[in-house]
Amino acid sequence: MDWLGELKGRYQDRCLPGEPLSRHTTFRLGGPAESLVFPVSQEEWAWLLAFVRRRGLPLTVLGHGANVIVSDIGLPGITACTLRMETCSISGTRVRSEAGASLDMVVSKAVDAGLGGMEKMSGIPGTVGGALWINAGAFGQETYEHLVSYSALDPEGRLVRRSKAETRFGYRRVEGVEGLVFLSAEWGLSPDDQGRLRQTREQTLRARAEKQPLEYPSAGSVFKRPPGDFASRLIDSCGLKGLTVGRAQVSPKHAGFIVNLGGATAADVMTLIEKVREAVRAKTGVALELEQIPLGFK
Ligand SMILES: Cc1cc2nc3c(=O)[nH]c(=O)nc-3n(C[C@H](O)[C@H](O)[C@H](O)COP(=O)(O)OP(=O)(O)OC[C@H]3O[C@@H](n4cnc5c(N)ncnc54)[C@H](O)[C@@H]3O)c2cc1C
């Protein structure tokens, strides 16, 4: 049997051949996945990892698609999305969630339970898995700050459990996670006043809506913060707000964002990124580093 037939047999209606990834990314662009699947358990992930090894297929893991730029050609082999693994539970001061859970949902539950330490990460779109991948954060709080441990499968399908102490991480950087599929995470938070936490959450959500161009599809900040500065400040100082390639534009509201005005291609976005990088390098000498992750480019 061909690999797609075998995969379809196993995943049934949770296997979507040729699925446009523009439907599964916040940028709303990118070509199709040769096959998009939605595993629901650790066993299904282990089966999938064995399957891609046996068949020699490329595998891409996707969460909410809020930090990726998928090429216009799309992704070969299997794209596996974590969104069907989304449970989250709280016991005492411990918060545990599966990798496909929305990070904002986890934050909201923690706040409602009167647990502090993640409330300033309110409104970050994406899953726990995506947050573990890059140490997502906002307003001084980060995913790994109060992390106790994460569990994952390695490419051989072996279960890996790593504590925070065993993980090297920094600003939007995590070491030793290449090839892992995150399954779950556990945080240890601190009891705090629920009213105060709710207020911080509301303020944070309001600040995001005021500052960020949430009315357009995007994948958030394009570049990492350079040491001692902000990418958005540098881009703005070069007069690049509003710069447009095709239907992709440097947001006039927030220079750190590139938005899809409707119908942008991944090629538009990548060309615009290079133009911004070149202009900033020429004028300020700073080489901006991409935060967003290009997928499926040669
Ligand atoms: C409007 C907007 C605002 C944003 N604001 C912020 C912000 O304030 N702070 C911030 O840090 N980010 C921000 N982002 C970026 C994004 O929300 C985060 O990077 C988020 O963590 C991405 O999660 P995701 O599930 O969408 O990951 P995806 O985009 O689906 O994937 C990102 C990477 O993680 C990998 N990955 C995902 N899940 C797993 C898994 N289970 N196992 C292994 N690898 C996995 C993927 O392979 C990919 O390489 C913003 C994005 C948008 C659109």
Kindly describe this structure.
There is one protein chain. The protein is an alpha+beta fold and 298 residues long. The protein has 3 domains: 3-81, Uridine Diphospho-n-acetylenolpyruvylglucosamine Reductase, domain 2 (2-Layer Sandwich), CATH 3.30.43.10; 88-196, Uridine Diphospho-n-acetylenolpyruvylglucosamine Reductase, domain 3 (2-Layer Sandwich); 212-295, UDP-N-acetylenolpyruvoylglucosamine reductase, C-terminal domain (Uridine Diphospho-n-acetylenolpyruvylglucosamine Reductase, domain 1, Alpha-Beta Complex). It has helices spanning 3-11, 42-55, 103-112, 128-134, 194-211, 231-237, 266-284; strands at residues 15-17, 33-37, 59-62, 68-70, 75-81, 88-91, 94-98, 115-116, 137-138, 141-142, 147-153, 159-163, 169-170, 173-174, 181-188, 190-191, 218-221, 244-245, 248-250, 257-260, 293-295. The strands form 7 sheets. Strands 6-7-15-11-12 form a 5-stranded antiparallel sheet. A hairpin with a 2-residue loop joins strand 9 and strand 10. It starts with a helix and ends with a strand. The relative contact order is 0.13. Bound molecules: flavin-adenine dinucleotide (FAD). Flavin-adenine dinucleotide is lined by residues 26, 61-68, 82, 99, 124-127, 129-131, 133-134, 136-138, 180-182, 212, 214, 218-220, 293. Residues 26, 61-68, 82, 99, 124-127, 129-131, 133-134, 136-138, 180-182, 212, 214, 218-220, 293 line the site of flavin-adenine dinucleotide.
